[in-house]
Each structure stands twice: as C-alpha cells, then as structure tokens.
Amino acid sequence: MTIVAALQMASGPQVQANLMEAGRLIKEAAGRGARLLVLPETFAMMGVHETDRVKIAEPYGNGPIQSFISQQAKQYGVWIVAGTIPVHSDNPDRPYAASILFDDKGKAVARYDKIHLFDVMLSENQEVYTESDTTTPGREPVIVDTPFGKLGMSICYDLRFPELYRRLSAMGAQILVIPSSFTELTGKAHWETLLRARAIENLCYVIAPGQGGYHVNGRTTYGHSMIIDYWGRIRGECDRGAGVVLAELDMDALEQTRKTFPVLSHRCPPENKL
C-alpha cells in the first residue's frame, strides 16, 4: 500500500510566504509517510487581481516556483503534483495554468495544462470569474505511469466535465488528481458530490486538495480537501485552513473490484449511441 497526501492551503499574494507554507506541509506529509503529495490550485499565489498571476509566470522547466518544488521533492524523496503554476504560453498576457508532476529525484516528469477555464457568474452573490482573460487553455488530457499507479491529471473546473475523466479512465487511469480552488458557494453545492461521482463512475482513487479559507483578495474558498476511494468512500478530509489529508491506496483492492464489478468494460462503444 502507498500513503498519499492532499495538502490544503489558504494562499495569499506573497509567493515566498506561500512557498514557505507549502514547504511546511510537504515536510509534515513526508514525515508521516506520504510518498505522493498533491498541492492545491494556485498554491504559490492567490493574487489580489487576476493579472497578478501573469507577473509570476515562468518558462517551463525553469523558475523559482518550479525550482522550489523540485528541491522539496528531491529533499524528501517524494513525488509532488504542483497544483498549478503559471507557465509561459505564446501569449505573454495569458500563461497556462500548468499542473506539473515532479518525481522523487526532483525531475519534472509530466505536465498538464488546464483545459476548462472558469468563466462564470454566480447569480446568488454576483461574483464574476473570467479565467480566460489571463489563462491560455490546454488541449490534451495527460496520464502518467508512476510507482503508485496510472495517474490522470486534471484541475478544479475540469471536475464538472465527466467526459474528460472518461477519457482518462479509458487511457488506464487508476488515480485522479484534482488540485482545486472551489469557491465557497459552489463548493457547498457540488464539491463532494462531483468528486465522489468521478471516483465511482471510473473506479478510481481521487486525490483532491483545495484552497480553504479567506483570501486577501476578498475571495473565500471552500476547502474540504478529500481523498476518496474507487467505491466513493471518503478516506480523509480537511475542513478549513491549512492541513494535510492522508490516506492509503490499495491498488490490489482496486483491481480486484474492477474484475468483480466490471462496469468499465460495459461502456457502450461510440457507434452505439443511446
């Protein structure tokens, strides 16, 4: 079995302070036996303005945020999914929201650019989000072979698009990572329901760290970081504030369940339209 961790934060506008907090949580999780750690979306900065993230964008493979996570992974001998890091695109005003996986030697072994961008208005409180103003969307799903299982990568708003997870499942995913920054309003309504659905319908473990608290920009995030098993059972949860959620992954049990409850093999082929 493998111990994994979802790291919950309440990030602010100061990158160095956020990295110090991330380092504290990484050290704690590694010290408690976790081998795969997942940081939340926007862990390095929750800016006062959306354009603040553009100012800290880095070229892929180089930059202080990536270097810090690389060093932490190597120091503690753990694999780290670095929630999201702004990474340069062809448009200098719209970097990618990149989730980067570092192995236990500190090498970046995979990168997923967020596909679905959060452009919504929440009618209940009139909050407006236009992520596409400052973010270039990604195009391709990403799955990675790791020592812990086949890992499918996604980010926050992706959670509402089950077709992405169906594709990751078809590609062989056993673990789904969903670093997030759900709003308080949408989190209360849908967070747990959507996470458990993605786990159940794909017979996958879900590791979903979130931002959880009040932020300097006036935004409140929902928190409730969770690790959920392939049967939809919540194996660990953190309510609000910074914290570490730990759980064990039993891949033998997952594969046995897939054999005895072969729902994945019962999917209709594309030509059989219902």
Automatic annotation (TrEMBL):
CDD domains: nit
Superkingdom as given in the UniProt entry: Bacteria
Domain CN hydrolase: start-end pairs: 1-251
Keyword terms: Acyltransferase, Hydrolase, Lipoprotein, Transferase
Annotated GO MF terms: acyltransferase activity; hydrolase activity, acting on carbon-nitrogen (but not peptide) bonds, in linear amides
Record bears the keyword Acyltransferase: yes
InterPro entries: C-N_Hydrolase, C-N_Hydrolase_sf, Nit1/2_C-N_Hydrolase, UPF0012_CS
Similarity section: Belongs to the carbon-nitrogen hydrolase superfamily. NIT1/NIT2 family.
Name used for this protein in its record: Nitrilase/cyanide hydratase and apolipoprotein N-acyltransferase
Organism in which the protein naturally occurs: Thiothrix nivea (strain ATCC 35100 / DSM 5205 / JP2)
